[in-house]
Amino acid sequence: MLMNTHEARVDALRKELARQNLDGFVIPISDEHMSEYVGAYAQRLEWLTGFGGSAGSAVVLKDEAAIFVDGRYTLQVREQVDGRLFAYESVPQTSVAAWLGEHAPEGARIGYDAWLHSKGWAESAARALAARNATLVAVERNPIDAIWQDRPQPSLAPAVPHASEVAGRSATDKRAEVAEWLATKGHDAAVISALDSVAWLLNIRGEDVSRTPVALSFVLAHADGTADLFIAPEKVTPDLVAHLGNAVRVQPREAFVPMLQGLAGKTVAVDPERAVAAIWKALEDAGAKTVAVTDPTVLPKAIKNPVEQAGHRAAQARDGAAISRFLHWLSVAAPKGGETELSAAAALQAEREKTGQLRDLSFDTISAAGPNGASPHYKVDEHTNRPIEPNSVYLVDSGGQYLDGTTDITRTVWIGPDAPPAEVKDRFTRVLKGHIALARAVFPRGTNGSQLDTLARQFLWSAGLDYAHGTGHGVGSFLAVHEGPQRIAKASGGQAGTGQELLPGMILSNEPGYYKAGEYGIRIENLILVEDRRIEGADGAYMGFETLTFAPIDRTLVDLSLLTGEERGWWNDYHAQVRALLAPQLAGDDLAWLETACAPL
């Protein structure tokens, strides 16, 4: 019998924990690859709690339970998760480990799935539990899987080659770079466990995770330039084998752990942020020497080569035309009433599909009307779907996956027919000023993202306002829409954000925002490319940003009295570029709308 209520599922989990002699269990949103977005088979937290965000965890004890989310999901978690079943906890104010240190019963056995957590997390949780004479126990079988009767199976869609013509580099060249790094460091092999890292290294793509074109697999890269790919045999085609060549040995996924167990005496590089605790344990139990180091593909993947940069510009131009057709449609249809968040999201996807080159969306469209816009990572469904009402704020954050690039854009628009209130215009213009300040930034080599974050927040701060998310994330090339190691965000824990310096070729988002709970949300997002800047007489090397995203920004929401001459100049220059790039792709009423939307301020 299927359990149709979350209360029944929590009750069934507690009974399963008792069968496994456990006093509690930790449930993250994760998979065996530490992915941000996971396949349906790994959506254990959503199945148990109803929470549909992309980051969060829960703990279920015998007599209480809690769910942990960050500031992006403060509103969403309360709408989706029953507060009678789970206490709401905010990260980073608290953590799962800290909560367990206070709530776990004395002497308790708390279970976790070592294939879903990092080694560092397991160590910190074990330390917190030790204060209560409790222990953290790696389960042999995930108790959620034991009770989730209609759990989907992992995807068996084929893995496909990603041609060098769009990748810009051959897989052979990439493997040689990793091999050279291993040899220089004196390491024998590196575990490549992140799905986008595997995809980048071998120039393969897949359909195993919604919105991210990756194939479920692991790689063990060796210092001699060869590699072992561990993947379900059903996913392997003759085309894939031919693409990989003789230097890549294709093995069934089940052979991964035995291969790790055979590395006794070898020095193996493992990424503490991307490799789950079970991988570390297999290596350490085998007697391998593990070295904690960032996956050697992460930085070269983040620095887009010239072919990837050109592909991204082409994808953005195509995507910008689709966005403009949608915004024109919205400007006509929405003020009449009758449109909803779901109908708008469908209309936008249809415009992208008209390009004939859309492979997938790059994430579920955030189509947010009125108060729903105040949840930065709002996800519309049949239950939350809200009408787009005349005289209200509508926010749409969306993106497309194209063979030549991954896009991500947010536009906030005023749905007329009346003029927007002064407060909304003020908040929008402060967000716009921050967006422009970051877009125009010039900075020396060695600068990291946290050093630029204040530029985007300063005009909100001066009015006593802020937003509870980062300002910018890295973006992949027909890969993950959220990609590290670069980001633009507040420094955390006394450290300078991630500490990763920005380097030419990196793509980031520029997306300051403002959110008024119960009323509206505002965000303006373009993608930007780090580029070298020549400055006459400069002391050292300097960099700036090339804006990559081109679509009109809603001029009706701008309070012109708040803009400086330089900011107006940026606006006019930007919209002149929008017009030049998109006008050849538009016709008729769409083109006429674009001309009006891009007229100088």
TrEMBL record:
UniProt entry tagged with the keyword Metal-binding: yes
CDD domains, per the entry: APP
Record keywords, A-Z: Aminopeptidase, Hydrolase, Metal-binding, Protease
Stored InterPro entries: Creatin/AminoP/Spt16_N, Creatinase/aminopeptidase-like, Creatinase_N, Pept_M24, Pept_M24B, Peptidase_M24_C, X-Pro_aminopeptidase_P
Peptidase M24 C-terminal domain: residues covered: 542-601
Signal sequence range: none
Highest taxon of source: Bacteria
Residue ranges constituting the Peptidase M24 domain according to the UniProt record: 312-531
The keyword Manganese belongs to this UniProt entry's keyword annotation: no
All residue ranges annotated as the Creatinase N-terminal domain in the record: 9-139
GO molecular function (one): aminopeptidase activity
UniProt family annotation: Belongs to the peptidase M24B family.
Protein's recorded name: Aminopeptidase P family protein
Organism annotation: Novosphingobium cyanobacteriorum
